[in-house]
Design goal:
By secondary structure, this protein is of the alpha+beta class. It has 2 domains: 49-144 and 245-287, no CATH class; 178-244, no CATH class. It is built from 11 helices and 5 strands, in the order H-H-H-H-E-E-E-E-H-H-H-H-H-H-E-H. Helix 1 (2-36) packs antiparallel against helix 5 (136-146) and helix 6 crosses helix 8 (196-222). It is elongated and about 75 Å long.
Length: 288
């Protein structure tokens, strides 16, 4: 009797938690799947401005910076450059967070501007300028992480619903546990010859069991982006006392940053991802 009552409570929790979190988890899941391939799709759709024909000589970074400034106007300050590979254009970024008075619940109100300038590093030609606030994959990311709400609100909502969803997953596992081998066999199969209602139940019951490990993994890793305490807890569980730094402290990085400052540029952030060629070759191409 006690066990039956326990199962009823678990079933009630599973049902209502699933109903409450369902729409948010569905949105987060779909946008997460789309965002997985954001770079590949973005590069293909915008291949006219992303890709360049490699040449022997790269224009000086200071010259490219001036062209980027000119394309954006004096009111926007360039704060970074992304250098990824010889086949891809340099991307200069200009980002400014909005004043608090101008920020509302909308995620789009967080930035006064968030632009990217694509420049052919070999010819100096400006290939295109993009307002990243409304770029498709940026909107998908905001929907995935914040439900298009301002970060302190949207991120907590997504994280909270994700955490509650974990309870739905665990209660579902409890309900799935079979009483005997016969029920175990039935729980692992889908009876496609049955009526629609039974097929629907089997899909939920059987497929749900198989995806539980992935669902738990998605919850555990996804919450890192919503809650600082969860992120720090994960690092401690993995043997790190504090959150590690992901910025390079190499001498090459310091030399490049020093070069930019010495030439009077207003860059305070350089994102460098070396792919297919050496660090020294990259710095030489910048400093010539």
């Amino acid at each position: 009797m006690a066990k039956s009552k326990f199962k009823k409570i678990v079933g009630w929790l599973h049902l209502w938690i699933g109903l409450v979190t369902g729409i948010v988890i569905f949105i987060v899941s779909i946008t997460g799947c789309i965002y997985t391939f954001d770079q590949e799709i973005f590069d293909w759709v915008h291949r006219d401005i992303v890709y360049v024909e490699p040449e022997n000589t790269v224009r000086p970074l200071s010259e490219l910076l001036e062209k980027a400034k000119h394309s954006l106007g004096a009111e926007k300050i360039i704060d970074g450059v992304q250098i990824t590979s010889p086949e891809k254009a340099y991307v200069f970024t200009a980002t400014r967070v909005n004043d608090v008075a101008n920020i509302n619940l909308s995620a789009f109100s967080q930035y006064a501007y968030q632009d990217q300038v694509y420049i052919n590093q070999y010819t100096g030609q400006v290939l295109g300028v993009m307002d990243m606030r409304y770029e498709f994959f940026h909107v998908v990311e905001l929907l995935h992480r914040q439900l298009l709400l301002v970060k302190p609100v949207g991120s907590v909502i997504v994280g909270g619903f994700t955490l509650i969803f974990l309870i739905a997953v665990l209660t579902g596992l409890i309900l799935w546990i079979p009483k005997n081998y016969k029920q175990l066999k039935r729980n692992l199969q889908i009876k496609f010859s049955a009526k629609w209602k039974r097929i629907n139940y089997d899909l939920h019951n059987s497929v749900g069991f198989y995806v539980i490990p992935f669902a738990i993994l998605f919850v555990i890793t996804g919450l890192v982006w919503s809650f600082r305490w969860w992120e720090l807890g994960m690092y401690k569980m993995l043997g790190e006392k504090e959150r590690p730094s992901f910025f390079s402290n190499s001498s090459s990085f310091s030399r490049a940053r020093f070069y930019v400052k010495q030439n009077g540029c207003h860059l305070y952030r350089i994102a460098i991802a070396i792919r297919g060629y050496t660090v020294e070759a990259d710095w030489n191409s910048i400093s010539h």
